[in-house]
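#dry-run=false #mode=assembly
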Amino acid sequence: MTSMVVGSNLLVDLVRGPRPAEWASLREAAEGRLEGRDLPTTKDEAWKYTDLKALSARAFSPAPRATVDISAYLLPEMVGTRQVFVNGHHAPHASCASAVPAGVRFLPLSTASEACHALGTVKNGEVPELFEDLNSARFEDGAVILVPKNLKVTLPLHLLFLTRADAPVAVFPRVLVVLEPGAELELVEEHHGEGTYLSCPVVEVRIGEGAILRHERVQRESPEAFHLGTLKAEVGRHGQYHSRTLSFGARFSRQHPWVRLAEGAEGTLDGLALLDGQQVADTHSFMHHAEPNAVSHQLHKCIVDGKARAIFNGQVRVAPGAQGTDAKQQSRNLLLSETARVDTKPQLEIYADDVKCSHGAAVGQLDPEELFYLESRGLNADDARNLLTYGFAADVLQRVPVASVRRSLRQLVMARTQAASLGVLA
Amino acid sequence: MLSIKNLTASINGTLVLKGIDLEIKAGEIHAIMGPNGSGKSTLGKVLAGHPAYEVTGGEVLFEGRDLFSLAADERARAGLFMGFQHPIEVPGVSNASFLRLAYNKKAEAEGRDELDPLEFDDFIHEKIKLVAMREEFLDRSLNEGFSGGEKKRNEILQMAVLEPKLAILDELDSGLDIDALRVLGDAVNRLQRADRALLIITHFPRILETIQPHHVHVLSGGRILKSAGKELALELEERGYDWVLEASAAGGAR
Ligand SMILES: Nc1ncnc2c1ncn2[C@@H]1O[C@H](COP(=O)(O)OP(=O)(O)OP(=O)(O)O)[C@@H](O)[C@H]1O
Ligand SMILES: [Mg+2]
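#status=ok
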């Protein structure tokens, strides 16, 4: 065991945990960087609004293997294209890859050592974020997806991460997605759980020239969970990466999506967070226009009720020489209570001159003109409010390509916005 | 059906309606014309119950009931409908499910059976034929990204679904192409019956050739300055509003 000098109990416990032998160099590098590091505090600019005290006060142990009935989580389009992980461990009996087309590799990391050289190579800065390093130091399993050149996969793939925590545990799911040039794929990544736990996933995506990945990310962790996720996507020339992060669960969640666009590439980072009670959801995104003529879209929406708090920090960097960049960013937030809070900040760094960058941020209540319109058609004030709140969120779900996912998310949003009785689900 | 007596209303402390008197009987079609900013849309919104307007005086009876004792949604369920000059976009809510919801709320209030999605499907297909709307508009979000004319068509679709006793149509004709104007004008005529009434707000006599009014009123500066038969619309088209205003100032236009 390596000795560590770390300031908080959380990090001491985690770095003393089990240390699987594979991916040794990735782990050692991460451990080296973790040495002497401590959890960020609210004095760090990037963590100004998100206090990790509740996290550092707890001790998390490694998560034991468990068996879970997954029938409630099966999605009809993806019964034969799913990999399931329970408490961070691959669950072979719950998984089924019989419908995965020939040529596509969709495997647990623990059985795919050929992916070794690619893991950890998508670099989103000089030094990885602390939680990414924690994952690199401690992940036990996860998934590898490799789609060969020009193969357009018609069935979506399902990645399901379930956590069952009887006592506080930590899980570190790891995912690597590589699309060779001209390949196409739809991926649904879901996180569900029960109990108190820390989930620290890292997803690395590499998209070849002209390849297209549509990535739905559903965070439905338990209400007591901490979710600190990293997403890194490198998009090759004229490739496309479209992702939507839909956050419903977790006491505390932080998302770090990072996208690098090569020439002519297209990137989407949409987000939706529905928050209530004491929930905190923080998104720090980074859209990097590294080369000319790339297009990016970001629509981030939050509905915040109770004493919940949403934070959005959307960084967009247009590198020198990235002429013809077209970057759009919208942060729209609906406050449903006096005690709810939203802090939203666009952060544009533009080092080229021939660029189109637009951004907007809005925080507010429902629009009285919209309410009146619905009331003038006979809906009472409560129904009109609930329907508009539902619509505000459902707007982000409209373009979810997998029908069963879209339907179940709409149902969830409907239940959370008291719109279920309206029966507007088509 | 609707009886307006000396109605005054203000917005943000500015008096916009300065004493309106208007009597609309079942089976009648009325038109209101008047210069920009004269208070036409304000009258429609006050009648429909927009919360930003304050009624400062006067009385309105709708089917014998005090209209102002009803909230906007109650007025709608009681059979009042306003087609908006600028319909609102509601993202995330499909047109079809919104229409079914509105229909069922009204059916519930009237003690009629609500329609389930399948029954409503048949029902709405008859209605979209009436307004010549393409089916794909049912699946789109309510008015989101609709062109100006498509929004107006959707207003008349809503009217056809709700079958109101009194429909106030605020500038239905603005933004409509010639064919759409004819189609929607015909649709409105077909919805009109002896126990229903219409109040058409417009700037142009063309729509009044299809939807022929029994009475035309000139509203200016928050007052109705002149009322006459449908020939008044053409006279206004030829002569403008100045002569009405002048005659009124001289105390004789009525
Ligand atoms: N929110 C508001 N605050 C202040 N004044 C307002 C407000 N809304 C409307 N008004 C004023 O009330 C007056 C009447 O407006 P209204 O929209 O009723 O006119 P209109 O007759 O429908 O005009 P148009 O023919 O252009 O549609 C105008 O002078 C307008 O500026
Ligand atoms: Mg008007």
